[in-house]
Amino acid sequence: MSLASVNEFFPPLLPQRDYLLAVDSDGTVMDSMERKHSRCFVPAFIESFNLQPRAHEAREAWEFVNLRSRSRGLNRFPALLASLELLQSHPGLGSDPHSLPQLSDLRTWIAEERRLSNPSLKSHLAHRPSAELEAVLAWSESVNLRIRELSVSSPFYGAQDALLEASGEADIVVISQTVSEDLKREWKANGLEALPRCLVGQEAGSKRDSLERAIASGYQTERVIMVGDTFQDYDAAAALGVAFYPIIPGFEGFSWQRFQSHALPRFLAGAFDRAYQADLLSAFQEGLPLRPTWSPACAARAKTSLEQSAPELRVAVGW
Questions:
Q1: CA nearest to 76, candidates 223, 232, 199
Q2: Contact at 8 Å (CB) between 17 and 267?
Q3: How far apart are CA 176 and CA 281, in angstroms?
């Protein structure tokens, strides 16, 4: 799939300033990651795949993959595969023969599809019916319904002030793996919808695809920076040769204050060099481990699953 084929999900962007600030939303600007996963993704995961007998272990596996590790922020569909693989190796399962879904059709679809979203999955099912993928779609739609029942999340302390200051010098685009409808709802409810030039959700494809399209609108790579809270954000920036600033999970307010007072001025002055970014990444890496505490072997199994289903996700997961 070429980038041209995702035009309908990425509105035309004509540069108004020389600099581009690409920013993630959930867990970066909006304090929403913990709530969405604990109250929406995890219950839907347990109920949709009949994991009630192992609900505690299922929650641990899901939250490690999606909140506590280098795979934080991964698109929900490969995250579902990784969470099931991690759960399979959880010591809490013991010798219990309780079977877990293998989702081989999902593995195949992930390997073939570039835009991992509900619309693309529905399109696939229209041509290649699969009871397994119908169940996955029902799970994903259940997640969306639960999210829309939540009260709207607010920005982290310091995020709005930093973005307002940056908007005086840089065009801002929001690049997220959140469903576009929910993304726009949250930014509008917080009175921030006019701040970014555009908001791009998961329907447009990977973060790398969306960032590449934004840059191609007419920005020089040395004048582009990506701000995010996951290694998916970092990998997109690194692949395209642009700067990356991490919002460290658990230290979001501090991260935004440091961005406004130190990182943003350095970026605009052309002094956001590799040494400075390396210092920032050191603390970022410490907060997002590769392996769960319960067993070093678990992450290796989740890694193997993702590599087999979609080799291009190796970098995205960060294993």
A1: 232
A2: no
A3: 20
b (16+ CB within 10 A) / e for 216-235? ebebeeebbbbbbbbbbbbb
The larger pLDDT score, comparing residue 29 to residue 299, is at 29
> What distance in Å separates the CA atoms of residue 304 and residue 67, rounded to the nearest whole number?
20
Angstrom distance (rounded) from CA 76 to CA 84: 12
Averaged confidence pLDDT in the chain: 88
- Integer Cα distance of 220 and 215 in angstroms: 7
| Residue 97 buriedness (CB in 10 A; 0-12 / 13-18 / 19+) | exposed
- Reference 256, options 160, 154, 188; nearest CA is 160
pLDDT per residue over 181-204, tens digit each? 999 999 999 999 999 999 999 888
Q: What is the pTM of this model?
A: 0.86
Beta carbons within 8 Å of 235's beta carbon, 6+ residues apart: 208, 315, 316, 318
Q: Which residues of 287-318 are buried (b: 16+ CB within 10 A; e: fewer)?
A: ebeebbebeeebbeebbebbeebbeebebbbb
Instruction: Read off the pLDDT of residues 43-81 as tens digits, 9 standing for 90 and up.
Output: 999 999 999 999 999 999 999 999 999 999 999 999 999
Name the 3-class secondary structure at 187: helix
pLDDT of 23 above 80? yes
Residue 6 has pLDDT above 80, yes or no: no
At residue 218 the predicted structure's pLDDT band, cuts being 50, 70 and 90, is very high
d(CA 287, CA 155): 21
Q: Edge-to-edge strand order for the sheet containing 224-228?
A: 198-200, 170-175, 19-23, 224-228, 243-246
Q: What per-residue confidence (pLDDT) applies to 311?
A: 41
As a whole number of angstroms, the distance between CA 197 and CA 215 comes to: 13
H or E element at residue 20: strand 19-23
**Amino acid in position 147:** I
